[in-house]
From TrEMBL:
PROSITE patterns: TRYPSIN_DOM, TRYPSIN_HIS
Database matches in InterPro entries: Peptidase_S1, Peptidase_S1_PA, Peptidase_S1_PA_chymotrypsin, Peptidase_S1A, Trypsin_dom, TRYPSIN_HIS
Function comment: Fibrinolytic activity; shows preferential cleavage of Arg-Gly bonds in all three fibrinogen chains. Contact with the caterpillars causes severe bleeding, due the anticoagulant effect of the protein.
Assigned GO CC terms: extracellular region
Family per record: Belongs to the peptidase S1 family.
Gene Ontology BP terms: proteolysis
Keyword Signal set for record: yes
PANTHER family, per database record: FI18310P1-RELATED, POLYSERASE-RELATED
Domain of life: Eukaryota
Keyword annotations: Disulfide bond, Fibrinolytic toxin, Hemostasis impairing toxin, Hydrolase, Protease, Serine protease, Signal, Toxin
Protein name: (diamondback moth) hypothetical protein
Amino acid sequence: MMFSTTSAFIMITLAATATALEDVGVYIIGGKDASVNKYPSIVQMEERYGGKWKFKCGAVILSERTVITAAHCMLITYSNGNYDDVKPRNIRIRAGSSKYEKGGHIVDVRNYQSHPNFDEANFNADIALLTLRTRLPMSNITKTAFIVPSGLELPNNHAVQVAGWGRTDSSNHSEDLQAVTVYTVKHDECNRLHGGKITENMICAHDGPPYRRGQKNACYKGDSGGPLYMHGMLVGIVSSGSKNCTEQPAVYTKVSAFTNWINTNAV
């Protein structure tokens, strides 16, 4: 299925220490309360733990039957470091709500597929498509996202918006959707700051330089899988970062590297 892209973006002029990449979530530093009226394509992905449904990741609506998220959101990580796949029956989507684990429209997941090149070690190709059991009703608070054209490279130091329900401090998730504007970071610079772990399938963004704590950013632990928007178009998926929070750019899956895969595999 072909999903909506914004051709106007083709007219845009395109122009340190080693750390391990970590599950970043959107521990949104410096964010402000937002609404699904402004970000109607963002949804919550919940997982069933011991009979109770709990927020796990952010995700984004691509069609009435498909949402997109980070591939590492589809893994269960055990204390010994081993992984296992989440069962589709234990995943559901909450759409059309700005509130954490409250309200909105609930839809079960029929199945999902992670990108075949996803690497748990470095989060390369950290992208997955979820097929919903029933159609999501479209409205002013549940809308499909425009996705970036294949191969489009974002300009450096360009404003982008990240949204999610991740922690705004070291302990608590936000009860309300949060959003913040950050700026794209040059690939070579981000790769240096992350010790050579940034691939061509990744985008970096931050409020720096200089890179220091207390700035606006997406950070460690929270709701990975959420959107990175540029002028309302989905350009990235929240993927990974560092435990030092705002001291390094957050890392996002570059959607333009996977547009063709999305169009081929989504419904």
